[in-house]
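Everyone, describe these structure tokens:
***
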Amino acid sequence: MKKLLTIAAMSVIALSATANANLLVNAGFEDGEAGGINEVAIPGWTPWWDAGKVYDENEATPRPTFGDQALMFWWDTGGIFQDVTIEGGDTLNWGVMAQTPSDDQSTWNGLCKMEFFNSADMGNMLAVEEIKFMPAEQPADEWVKISSTTIAPENADVARIVLLVTDWVDGAHGIVLFDNAFIAVPEPASLVLLGLGGLTMLRRRK
């Protein structure tokens, strides 16, 4: 009886964990080579212009990462984005980890955007939401999770996450680091299973 209960509980936990699987490819920028965003391929991501790069442990000034590589921007002339397929009305949890180092603390703000499109007309943005990493309000040398939860427009079937720096000021300087971006669709069914699993365990205890 206890063995069956353990298996049931483990199954519920596993289903709950996979319910929030990341829809992004190469979310931590681990795939591909280090280099400027306009010089190397970044699998899963589409860059524009310059002033950003994927960096690794060979950086002249070591920078932190969650894995082997992460992303850095130092000016607002470039960025990257990735599109994922969704369904209209989906609830999306999305965001990224961000940091500014104390030896080159940024006066820029990191920007993470969620844009929505219908694949039949990618030139027409249906909605956009923005969240900012503001170094002036955060401690240096610490990863900060910036995230939001957004309901996709009913006619959207593409969600686009965009990473860049913004808010130019006179004498702008410093760098912003990004790593471990995510877009996830929580599955209500998993919450129901988790609740049923809890009820089952309560019943077994009686």
Summary: The domain at 21-186 is CATH 2.60.120.260 (Jelly Rolls).
